[in-house]
Write a structure and sequence with these properties.
Helix content: 40-55%
Structural class: alpha/beta
Bound molecules: nicotinamide-adenine-dinucleotide, 2'deoxy-thymidine-5'-diphospho-alpha-D-glucose
CATH superfamily: NAD(P)-binding Rossmann-like Domain
Number of domains: 1
Number of strands: 12
CATH topology: Rossmann fold
CATH class: Alpha Beta
Strand order of the largest sheet: 3-2-1-4-5-6-10
Order of helices and strands: EHEHEHEHHEHEEHEEHEEHHEHHHH
Radius of gyration: 20 Å
Distance between the termini: 38 Å
C-alpha cells in the first residue's frame, strides 16, 4: 500500500525531531506536497531552526513551488483552531510530534504534560474525526493520523530482554504515563471509530536542534564551557541511541507503507551506559576542540539520581525491519561526530534559546496570525 500524503499537518515542527522531520521531507525524500507546521513555540520550540525551510519553501520563498511550507502558531489544545487549520489547508495527514518531552520537567511539574500530551492529543483526534468523516461517520480513505511516541511507555528493563510491540505498557514517570495515555487514545479512536492510524515508539534520539536539557547536547555544551558534567546516580543507566534522521526515515516509511492500525518500534540497536557514552563524547569533543581528555574527564560530577529513574531501555525493531525494510543509516560514531560539530558551530542558536533572545527574534521576524 502507498498513501498519498499530500497536505501534511506536522505538530511540534519547531521542536527537535519535528524540525529534523521537515528538513528530511524537503531535502531527502521525493515528497511533493505541502507541510503545515503547527507549534505553540514553548521553550522547546524554535522557529529560527527552520529559517532555511521558510526561505526556500515558505510563501514568498525562493523555491519554484513556494508556499509548500506554512507555519501556524497555535496550541493543539485549541479545538476550534485545529478544526480551522484542517479545513483551511485541506489536511489529509497528521504527524503528531507536539509534546512536552523532558522527563525531569515532568517530575517537577506534571500538569503541562497532561495538558499537551493527553488533552492536546485528544483535541486533535476529535478535530480530525469531525473533519475526516462524512455524515454517516465514515472516514475518507485517503487520510492518516501518525502518532509519535516513545519506548518509555513500556517501563524499565532489567539486564536482559527487549521492548517488543507486544510488551505491556508500564509507564513510570508523569511524562511516560502521559505518552502512554495518548497512545491508548489513538488506538481507541482506531478501534471505536475506525480512524486510520499508525503509531511508532522510538528510543532515545540525538542530533542537531535538540534543546540542551537532554543528555547529549547538555554534555557537549557543558564541556565547551568548562562546566560540571552531571551524571545521575551511578551512571550505569542504559539507553538505546538513534540518530534523529534515522528516526525520521522510519516514520516516513511507516506513514507511506505501514499497515493501518499497527504500531512499530523504532530503535538504534545501540545500547550504552550513560557513563560509557559520556566517555565517548569526551573523546569526540576533545578531538574537535583541542581540549585534553583528562581536563574534560575532571568535569564529570556524580549527582543525586532522578526519582523513579528507569534502568534500561532497549528496543526490538525487527518488525519494522522485516515488514517495511527499514534500517539505520548512521553509525553512532558518525552521528555523534556530526552532532558535536553542529553544537560547536551553532553558538548563536544556542545563546538565543538559552537567554531568551529567541523571543525577541520571533517578535522581529515573525508576524503572528
Ligand atoms: P521537543 O520538546 O524538542 O519539541 C516539542 C515541540 O512541541 C516544541 O516545538 C513545542 O513548542 C511543541 N509543543 C509543545 N506543546 C505544544 C502545544 N500544546 N501545541 C503545539 N505545540 C506544542 O520534543 P522532541 O524531542 O522533538 O520530541 C517530539 C516527539 O517525539 C514527542 O512526542 C516525544 O514524546 C517523542 N519522542 C522523543 C524522543 C527523544 O529522544 N527526543 C524519543 C522518542 C519519542
Ligand atoms: O527513550 C525515549 C525518550 O528519551 C524520549 O521519549 C524523551 O522525550 C527523551 O527526553 C529521552 O528521555 P531520557 O530521560 O532517556 O533522556 P535524557 O536525555 O533526559 O536522559 C538520558 C539518560 O541520561 C537518562 O538515564 C538520564 C541521564 N542523565 C540525563 C541528564 C539530562 C544524566 O545522567 N545527567 C543529565 O544531566
Amino acid at each position: 500500500m502507498s498513501r498519498k500524503l499530500k497536505n501534511i499537518l506536522v505538530t511540534g515542527g519547531a521542536g527537535f525531531i519535528g524540525t529534523n522531520f521537515i528538513y528530511y521531507l524537503f531535502r531527502k525524500t521525493n515528497f511533493t506536497g505541502r507541510i503545515i507546521n503547527v507549534d505553540l513555540l514553548t521553550y522547546a520550540g524554535n522557529l529560527e531552526s527552520l529559517e532555511a525551510v521558510e526561505a526556500e519553501y515558505g510563501t514568498g520563498g525562493t523555491e519554484g513551488k513556494a508556499g509548500r511550507y506554512v507555519f501556524e502558531h497555535a496550541d493543539i489544545c485549541d479545538g476550534k483552531r485545529m478544526a480551522k487549520i484542517l479545513r483551511q489547508y485541506d489536511i489529509d495527514t497528521v504527524v503528531h510530534f507536539a509534546a512536552e518531552s523532558h522527563v525531569d520537567r515532568s517530575i517537577l511539574g506534571p500538569e503541562a504534560f497532561l495538558r499537551t500530551n493527553v488533552t492536546g492529543t485528544f483535541t486533535l483526534l476529535e478535530a480530525v474525526r469531525a473533519y475526516w468523516t462524512d455524515k454517516d461517520g465514515k472516514f475518507r480513505d485517503d487520510v492518516l493520523f501518525h502518532h509519535i511516541s516513545t519506548d518509555e511507555v513500556y517501563g524499565s528493563l532489567g539486564k536482559e530482554g527487549y521492548f517488543k510491540e507486544t510488551t505491556p505498557y508500564s509507564p513510570r514517570s508523569p511524562y511516560s504515563a502521559s505518552k502512554a495515555s495518548s497512545d491508548h487514545l489513538l488506538m481507541a479512536y482506531h478501534h471505536t471509530y475506525g480512524l486510520p492510524v499508525t503509531l511508532s515508539n522510538c528510543s532515545n534520539n540525538y542530533g542537531p536542534f535538540q534543546f540542551p536539557e537532554k543528555l547529549i547536547p547538555l554534555m557537549i555544551l557543558n564541556m565547551q564551557q568548562g562546566k560540571p558534567l552531571p551524571v545521575y546516580g551511578d551512571g550505569k543507566f542504559i539507553r538505546d541511541w538513534l540518530y534523529v534522521e534515522d528516526h525520521n526515515s522510519a516514520v516516513w516509511m511507516i506513514m507511506n507503507k505501514g499497515r493501518t492500525g499497527e504500531k512499530y518500534n523504532i530503535g538504534g540497536e545501540n545500547e550504552w551506559e550513560n557513563i560509557r557514552l559520556l566517555e565517548k563524547l569526551i573523546e569526540i569533543v576533545a578531538s574537535q576542540t583541542g581540549k585534553s581528555v583528562d581536563s574534560l574527564k575532571k568535569l564529570i560530577t556524580y549527582v543525586k539520581d532522578r526519582p523513579g529513574h528507569d534502568r534500561r531501555y532497549a528496543i526490538d525493531c525487527s518488525k519494522l525491519k522485516s515488514e517495511l525494510g527499514w534500517k539505520q543509516a548512521h553509525t553512532f560514531e558518525e552521528g555523534l561526530q556530526n552532532t558535536v560539530e553542529w553544537y560547536l558551530n551553532h553558538n548563536d542558536w544556542i545563546s538565543h534559546i538559552r537567554n531568551g533572545e529567541y523571543t525577541k527574534w520571533l517578535e522581529n521576524n515573525y508576524q503572528n496570525r
